[in-house]
Amino acid sequence: MPSKENPTARETNAGGRLFILGPGGAARRLWSVYGGYALGFVSLFLIWQLASLYVVSSVLFPPPTVVFSKGLLLVRNGVLLEHLAASMQRILAGFIAGSLLGIPIGLAMGSFWPVRKLLEPYTEFLRFIPSVAMITVAVIWFGIGEGAKIFLIIYTTIFIVILNTAAGVSAIAPNKIRAAQSLGATRAQIFFHVALPATVPYILTGMRLAMGNSFTTIVAAELIAANDGLGKMLWDGRLFMLVDEIFVSLVTLGLLGFAVDRMFRWSIYTFAGKYSPAT
Amino acid sequence: MPLVSFHNVEKTYRSLQGVEYGAVEHFSVEIEAGEFFCLLGPSGCGKTTVLKMLAGFEAPTAGHILMDGRPVQGASRDRGVVFQGDDSLYGWLTAVENVEFGLRMRHVRKADRRERAMHYLELVGLRGQEKKYPAELSGGMKQRIQIARVLANEPKMLLMDEPFAALDAQTRSLMQEELANIWHTTRTTVLFITHDIDEAVTLGKRIGVMRAGPRSQVKGVVEVALNGARSRTDDVFLQYYKQVYEMIRDEVAKAIARAD
Questions:
Q1: Cβ of B87 and A175 within 8 Å?
Q2: A87 Cα to chain B: minimum distance (Å)
Q3: Predicted TM-score (pTM) of this structure
Q4: Residue pLDDT, tens place only, A190-222
């Protein structure tokens, strides 16, 4: 019986640097990390297959076998990758720009209370206007080109990154700062050597949440105004009643989101695992 | 001239509702260079307030705190602080990187600072643990890193705020023994805050006993004429314990009565 170690528990251990691997080789280790996921996905598609064949049994709910063969076809003729690349490019451009803007603003808001008081009306007002609602003005301002979509992704990224970064700065234990002061560190040194590294986990968590928002926003924006992208693919599918293409787009979004989020978690645990807020 | 002198120091805190609370008032004490001074008092008597003011984290409301004849203004590397908990350690740095933090801030060359950090890690008994992160170490080991981090920075004096209070009894008495040895080799001036009579008599050259708060001050100072290793079963040790106990007993009773 292979080990059924809970993947979440494993990662908590990795964060706490208490890697305890049971006896067994690389295969066993691989299984304990990915075995659960594999089983989960297999059961998901199996239930879907059975449901569409025996329970719903309609052309409006194609089974995964049909969706995958259609997907394969769209990969071969390059259509799927073209849409995928268009959406990913927009997400990445907006996400990176939004994070690069949000991190310094969040750091400044967390570090200096006048900056916080000054900018809080902006963040606390604007973050409650959903990016989906901003599609209308984005299209008016930037047209239906790339500008509008990148603006929307920046909009959906920036506030959550600011909020998390500022919260991270506020959460630094005062004794960390005091220790640095009595060790002779200057204000600038305290910022770069204490405040910034102590805030890294919060920044990464904010970025991870922002990435999830970006997926929602890009699809909504492409549904309304775009010539390509996964959202456009969904819209075309509805327009021409290509139900299998709609499903290809949905599955692609799910898998893509899952993969990107795993990459984020992996980078948080490996690159920044040691930046644990608790000593 | 004493290294540190508190002269009629007063510290008053004001709550958000505007209620004033006097932590210490007319607090005066002098600490000589090279001595191990324990400040002993019941909980809530303002011991930590005294340490925070000397460290430069908080300014006194009135009175003067002088070090080397100059008023204390803000934190400085002259006064290294060992905190009670482990939240002052940098979790993203290894043990040795934590210890050399102060040297790195002063741009000491990497090879030099590594050598000095290793020397002090060895002094606190952490040789072989230098590449571990704080989260991988026990509570006692983390306090050792704090002590090594402060010593490596070579301050004029050490301020220790109940550094062993969170440790288990066995680890605590071992750490006390080791700190006594370190003090005998380095002869750094120490201000050690504690609420534990046994700890004060074990470590202190002089023990300042504080009154119960609020508006506390030093009730009296006991000079401990014990040199070298101190044994808890020794008659002289017990005499000092009794002497200090007599002084603090009423204050503890008052502190408890006021808390109720």
A1: yes
A2: 36
A3: 0.79
A4: 999 999 999 988 998 899 999 999 999 999 999
